[in-house]
Write a structure and sequence with these properties.
Structural class: alpha/beta
Helix content: 40-55%
CATH topology of the largest domain: Rossmann fold
Largest sheet: 5 strands, parallel
Shape: elongated
Order of helices and strands: EHEHEHEHHHEHEEHHEHEH
Number of domains: 2
CATH class of the largest domain: Alpha Beta
Number of helices: 11
Strand content: 15-25%
Oligomer: single chain
CATH superfamily of the largest domain: P-loop containing nucleotide triphosphate hydrolases
Length: about 300
């Protein structure tokens, strides 16, 4: 029986055409990414891929820094393909070639004040022209070519997603909904923070004090209140309007933090409701940072 297909993308092209952005994009698509691997290490790397049994998508950056790679790449990849056949594993290999006009490449190099790898002591344009000549064969064999001359980094990212996202099997945008307690500090990785300490507090209800917003009595106490309903409708409505903007601008993750005093009751209930509603359209994780330690402290204090 054949094993799962291994996706292999060779990312190459003109120096300064956007390979760094490309690799970041493939990382977000769930690829295991390696930059500028020496060709003689490829067979050993392939052995490690097989031994791991968990790596299914690989992206390798190959550029002019590894000049030997361009002389050996096709024979090396043929050897890999033969090895895969022996191991009964299919390899779906694609070559992504990134290109740009001479004028744009010159402008980018002047802007960054970096030297072209083939023009360390000569004219920049001469190095670019020599690189085009050296990359001619691999460009002709590319599965996908993207001209980045007029593309912003975000637009290049979108192009890569359009070409490679279908087979990635992972979401490219997800939301983390987190509850927390202000007494334990603000979450430093939050993009949006909402303070719900103005809502009525189950902490002061004896039978609810030791429970959490995950328990139905507490959840109902918080969510059934008229003030909570009014707040939640407006807050959720706002998020529905602004979240698509974060996704459109190329953000891969969005963390929404909901805070109350201890992170045990109100914030937990709101986070649960919010995460459930957002799951109708997005990939969502729900976490409760301080719920357990806050509940533990309340119980310990009650036993003193």
């Amino acid at each position: 029986m054949a094993k799962d297909t291994l996706s292999l993308v060779i990312v190459t092209g003109m120096s300064g055409a956007g390979k760094t952005v490309a690799m970041q994009s493939f990382e977000d698509l769930g690829y295991f990414c390696i930059d500028n691997m020496p060709p003689n290490l490829l067979p050993k790397f392939w052995e490690l891929v097989h031994e791991s049994g968990t790596i299914k998508k690989v992206a390798l950056v190959v550029d002019i820094r590894s000049r030997a790679f361009y002389d050996e790449i096709f024979s090396m990849l043929s050897q890999v393909d033969e090895d895969e056949q022996e191991k009964l594993q299919k390899v779906d290999m694609k070559i992504l070639f990134l290109n740009a006009s001479d004028e744009e490449l010159v402008s980018r190099y002047k802007e960054t004040r970096r030297s072209h790898p083939l023009a360390m002591e000569g004219r920049l344009l001469d190095g670019i022209e020599k690189e085009r000549e050296l990359l001619g064969e691999i460009r002709n064999r590319a599965s996908v070519e993207i001209d980045t001359t007029d593309l912003t980094p975000r637009q290049l990212r979108e192009e890569i997603f359009d070409n490679f996202q279908e087979t990635s099997g992972v979401p490219t945008f997800h939301i983390e909904v987190m509850s927390f307690g202000f007494k334990y500090g603000l979450p430093i990785d939050a993009d949006i923070v909402m303070d719900v300490r103005f809502l009525k507090n189950p902490f002061y209800i004896k039978e609810l004090k030791t429970q959490t917003g995950m328990d139905k009595p507490v959840y109902d106490y918080v969510m059934d209140d008229a003030e909570t309903k009014n707040f939640y409708d407006k807050f959720y409505g706002l998020l529905k309007d602004i979240v698509p903007g974060y996704e459109k601008e190329g953000k891969t993750s969005l963390t929404i933090a909901i805070g109350c005093t201890g992170g045990q009751h109100r914030s937990v209930a709101i986070a649960q409701r919010l995460g459930t509603d957002l799951k109708k359209k997005y990939y969502v994780d729900i976490t409760h940072r301080d719920m357990e330690k806050s509940q533990k402290k309340v119980i310990e204090d009650g036993n003193k």
